[in-house]
Design a protein that fits this description.
Blueprint (H helix, E strand, L loop, with lengths): L2 E7 L8 E7 L6 E10 L2 H7 L16 E8 L11 E4 L2 E3 L5 H4 L12 E2 L18 E5 L4 E2 L6 H4 L5 H11 L7 E5 L3 H12 L3 E6 L5 H7 L3 E4 L5 H4 L4 E6 L7 H5 L2 E9 L12 H4 L4 E4 L5 H14 L5 E4 L4 H9 L6 E5 L11
Parallel strand pairs: 10-11, 10-13, 11-12, 13-14, 14-15, 16-17
Antiparallel strand pairs: 1-2, 3-4, 3-8, 3-17, 4-5, 5-9, 6-7
This protein binds NADP nicotinamide-adenine-dinucleotide phosphate and zinc ion.
Length: 355
């Protein structure tokens, strides 16, 4: 018997969220049923459900920053037991057999691709529904362990914003002696600053203004620069080894490439809906690179959670109720959140299901 749960749903890109009931599958032998305690709001949720990346499947529930407690396990589950503190990120399945999956890079699965936590075709042909909800059922191999040191609400955003910044910072070696610029101080950016600083790099925040300068410092940045300042690109030419680009909108790529030292790398994680253009001259001169990075694999996600717990930080969050999510979306788009909105899923309890 499927399990009926409350969830926030949109019936179309312009419709407001409403509280609806959706079915979660009856746990299979290798599934875990999770009672969701907190669900982060990622800008990818917004791009998806507003059809900015293409046609989404409606009605849809998004959310891929999920933290909660194991409520039940299938008969073959060995990794988790009832009561465990767990999380789910951006994927809920993959083939498990291709080279990438065997290498713990399930996000790059080459046989059909990973199954996204929402708006993705599941193994049974249904469309996956995300974490703005009371409960979720997920294969044990795509469930992470949340360290005791991290509360659910500050841990939830790590499942996407944390791993999406941790993985490129590890790949392109944010370390002592390296000058790292974090471009955009939103949900991803604020995790990038904390992680790069904890790895010992010298971190500069590149933001549109100096509005978040004090917070950036508290997160571990040595300085914040306003990209709107006069002669910004001229004044900071050739300063950085690595730019972590988290911006959700179009940017003048060539100008940002000029901020890199020779052999510097721009690691792109922000995915604006519009195509971005750059000149080959920007990468040929100085042998620079523009590289992309998509979340991170399951083993590295666990490593990131443990790293954050060891270093004593999670996300900086603003809690919102299930009735405040439309408003939260507007604030995210306006860059007005410090730094991640997280849905307090206990507020589903009193919420009426809408027709
Ligand atoms: P967010 O919280 O909205 O942060 C984005 C930041 O970009 C804003 O805080 C703002 O920084 C900057 N920004 C926004 N509009 C801008 C504009 N017009 N010009 C210049 N800067 C602007 O979003 P997020 O959740 O961190 O996600 C960021 C992007 O990463 C999104 O496109 C999302 O889809 C993508 N993403 C990718 C992956 C992946 O695996 N690659 C994973 C998750 C998310 P300031 O206010 O500091 O200027
Ligand atoms: Zn995300």
């Amino acid at each position: 018997m499927p399990i009926s749960v409350k969830a926030l749903q949109k019936t179309g890109p312009d419709a407001p969220f409403k509280v609806a009931t959706i079915d979660r599958r009856d746990p299979r032998p290798d599934d875990v049923l999770i009672d969701i305690k907190a669900a982060g709001i990622c800008h990818s949720d917004i791009h998806t459900i507003r059809n900015e990346w293409g046609e989404a499947h409606f009605p849809l529930t998004v959310g891929h920053e999920i933290a909660g407690v194991v409520e039940a396990v299938g008969s073959d589950v060995t990794k988790y037991k009832v009561g465990d503190r767990v999380g789910v990120g951006c994927m809920v399945n993959s083939c498990g057999e291709c080279e990438e999956c065997r290498d713990g890079q399930e996000q790059n699965c080459t046989r059909g691709g990973m199954v996204g936590t929402y708006d993705s075709e599941d193994v049974d042909g249904s469309i996956t529904q995300g974490g703005y909800s009371e409960k979720v059922v997920v294969n044990q191999d795509f469930v992470l362990r949340i360290p005791d040191a991290l509360d659910f609400d500050v841990a939830a955003p790590l499942l996407c914003a944390g791993i999406t910044t941790y993985s490129p910072l590890a790949t392109w070696d944010a370390a002592p002696g390296k000058k790292v610029a974090v471009l955009g101080l939103g949900g991803l950016g604020h995790m990038g600053v904390q992680i790069a600083a904890a790895k010992g790099a010298e971190v500069t925040v590149l933001s549109r203004s100096l509005k978040k300068e004090q917070e950036a410092k508290e997160l571990g940045a040595t300085r914040t620069l306003a990209t709107s300042e006069e002669d910004f690109f001229k004044n900071h030419r050739g300063e950085f080894d690595l730019i972590l680009n988290t911006i959700s909108a179009s940017i003048p790529v060539d100008k940002y490439m000029s901020l890199l030292k020779p052999r510097g790398v721009m690691a792109v994680v922000g995915l604006p809906p519009e195509k971005q253009a750059f000149s080959f001259g920007s990468v040929i001169g100085g042998r620079k690179a523009i590289a992309g990075s998509n979340i991170g694999g399951i083993p590295e996600t666990q490593e990131m959670l443990d790293f954050c717990a060891e270093h004593g930080f999670g996300a900086k969050i603003e809690k919102v109720s299930v009735h405040e999510v439309d408003d939260a979306y507007e604030r995210v788009v306006a860059g007005d959140v410090k730094f991640r909105c997280v849905i307090d899923t206990s507020t589903f309890a009193d919420a009426e299901v809408e027709a």
